[in-house]
C-alpha cells in the first residue's frame, strides 16, 4: 500500500470513528431522557393508583375522586374514531394499491395523505371545530370522535397501501386466472395475506390517538359527570390530565399522574400486541 493510500485509509477510519462516537452519544442522550420520562410516569403513577380511580367520577377542586367518566369518554371517542377511520382507510389504501398504484391521481392522493399524516393534531381539531362544533352550537363527543378519526385515517391508509403492495403479484394472477372476480380476489386473497399488517396499522393508529389532547380541547372539551350521550360534551383522559396537571391541588396532581400512567401502559400494550402480530407473521412466512 502506497503512502497516499495509507493516509486516505487512516483518514477514513478516523472519520468513521468520529461518526460512530457521535451516533452512540446521540443514542445514549435520547435513551436517557426517554427512560427518565418513563420512570417518572411509572413511579408517580403507581403511587397514585387506588381502587377509586376506576369507580368514582372526576372530583371538584380540592376533593378526592377518580377518572371513571374520563376512561369511559376516551373509550367511546376512540371506538368511534376506529369505526370511522378504519373502513375508510382500508378502502382508500386498497384503491391506491390495487387500482391507482402508479397513476398520477394515486401519487397525488399519497402526497395529500402524507401531509395529513404529519399535520399537527391541533390543526385537525380546529378544522373539526369549524366543521362540526360551530354547526352544532356546542362541544360533543361526536366531534371528538371525528377529530380522532382524522388522525387515525392516514395511518390506516398508508399501512393498507404498503401491506397490499407487498402481496406477490403471482397470487393476484393465479386467482384471476381461475375466473375469480376482482373484488373477490381483493377480499378473500389479498386482505387475508395482508390482514396482520393492516391490523397492526389500526393498533398503531389507536395508540397514537390515545394520548391526543389538543383536538379534544376544541371538540369534546370536558365533562365532570358521567355522560354516554355522544351529542354532549364528554370527558377524556388526556384532557383531564392536562387540566389537573395545571391545577394547584395535590389531589388533582395525583389523578393526573395516575391517568398518565394508565395511558402509558395502554400504549405500551398496544405496541407489544402490534410487535407480536408482526413477529408471528414473520415466523409464519419463514
Low-confidence spans: pLDDT under 50, at least 5 residues? none
Give a short account of the largest sheet. Answer: none
Q: Which CATH architecture of the largest domain is right?
A: Orthogonal Bundle
Mean pLDDT: 91
Enumerate how many helices there are, as a single number.
10
How would you describe this structure in keywords?
MetI-like fold; 2 domains; 10 helices; 0% strand; Phosphate_PstA; transport; phosphate transmembrane transporter activity; MetI-like_sf; Phosphate transport system permease protein PstA
Describe the structure.
The chain is an all-alpha fold and 286 residues long. Helices cover 78% and strands 0% of the residues. Helix 2 packs antiparallel against helix 7, helix 3 crosses helix 5 and helix 7 runs antiparallel to helix 10. It is globular, with a radius of gyration of 24 Å. The model has no long low-confidence stretch (mean pLDDT 91). One of its GO terms (biological process) is phosphate ion transmembrane transport. Keywords: Cell membrane, Membrane, Phosphate transport, Transmembrane, Transmembrane helix, Transport.
Task: Give a brief description.
The chain is mainly α.
List the helices and strands and how they pair.
Layout: H1 3-48, H2 68-98, H3 104-118, H4 121-136, H5 141-166, H6 169-177, H7 182-209, H8 214-219, H9 237-245, H10 250-285
Protein name: Phosphate transport system permease protein PstA
Main location: membrane
InterPro entries: MetI-like, MetI-like_sf, Phosphate_PstA, Phosphate_transprt_permease
